[in-house]
């Protein structure tokens, strides 16, 4: 297996709108991030992944871009960006930018041109089709509700938008589109950024003919069989790699909904002719609703979670590289979803989850606030939500009688993307120290108890625990490169596995339950001299043949 800096790194994701506001307008910005670089350096992370900061009408908080080479005015200026990049590098960290090129904003000049006439030179930059009588060209539904097609009266044709109607899909079959994207990428790389996180990059190639999809909940057809891992996606990424990426020392991570192990081996293969790694989604789907959508409130089952994560561990081993994540700006808070956010167990379970993830093989990602054990928020009414996905789903699913309003509000409290988007909790002053103004979305009222200032001062905090985990990765290469094996796949409460490399053996044991549980370590670890690298409950000096794990206890033992 090749050794590279990005396999050895820990990545921290910043959602700029919610990170830190420097000028009191209630919206996080680049200078806010600049003011918190010391905090990130102290945490010990290597790479910052910055969610989009480009010019955008903000239909989807920056994932709808109207100019790829300009900074969103609310976030600052290009000078602010250059200063931020310089400072990140000066502190010995790296910066990875979000690349959103499956679609643009409908306010991007390419689209303004494209929609202006059927024979405009930019027409073929997007996916235009004739209607089917009075109906859209096919039955595809958009990820954010409604049809994936929008009728354009001016030219009497429909354009495709797999996300909102303000996010028209680019036509990657057009070689000029690919050249434009590659030029733009080079422009950023020449500025000195260290790579890209590529938004829904598994969706850029659509099956020719755009066939109807299977109808799921009686409303629209599922586009994914014809839009995910499409026929030319690897060809496009290989071209991107040849013409752009291979010329720089960068890390790339593909956000790849619908990716399978077989596909991941191509996207993120060891030969490196496409991307460095991908985000797989299988563990994000374990708590989906039986009707097939994400809106639900039953927690995922541990046995399934173990099977899923372990499958990715073993099946990519030596062939491709994993990304490890519990959450991001599209997912609920990790501790509320996979752990226990009650005051009694929050700290322990947040540390346990961190241990479980950081000891696996792959590059770990920390989503802002996760290192504090930040929790979901309990919004009571739909008017408190800001996220386009949540708002549209509420309207569509309750409007069609598929779910009742109280049901949907319950599901939103558990799964809405806004759970991850409430402002970062810096201290116990007004608005958690995020802004002196009116925050664009409500601050979680638990900020007096959960905030960075308090946790920096507390040696037993979740923050200090993450710091320790990150340091361990730097001192023990077995954590990065060791082989993985799951123990007791059918145990319903304990997630335990081993890592092995060059005569070293590491045991990671995590109790996912709120009760004491009995754990039987494998023979080869029992009363063998070694060292406990980290533990979150009881100091463990050795492994006994039978061990009682505290609620949400985690420990890592190395021999
Ligand atoms: O997300 C893609 C994606 O798969 C999401 O739509 C995901 O299914 C959903 O958020 C979970 O409910 C990326 C970005 O991360 C997301 O923020 C954007 O809204 C989306 O692409 C469109 O650019
Ligand atoms: Ca601001």
TrEMBL record:
Keyword Hydrolase among UniProt keywords: yes
Ribonucleoprotein among keywords: no
Family annotation (CDD domains): AmyAc_SI_OligoGlu_DGase (cd11333)
Domain of life: Bacteria
A GO molecular-function descriptor: alpha-amylase activity
InterPro entries from the UniProt entry: GH, GH13_cat_dom, Glyco_hydro_b, O16G_dom_2
GO cellular component: cytoplasm
A biological process from GO: oligosaccharide catabolic process
SMART domains: Aamy
Stated family: Belongs to the glycosyl hydrolase 13 family.
Taxonomic lineage: Bacteria, Bacillati, Bacillota, Clostridia, Eubacteriales
Protein name per its UniProtKB record: Alpha-glucosidase
Keywords carried by this UniProt record: Cytoplasm, Glycosidase, Hydrolase
Stretches assigned to the Glycosyl hydrolase family 13 catalytic domain: 13-421
Organism: Massiliimalia timonensis
SUPFAM superfamilies named in the record: (Trans)glycosidases, Glycosyl hydrolase domain
Compartments (UniProt record): Cytoplasm
Pfam families, A to Z: Alpha-amylase (PF00128)
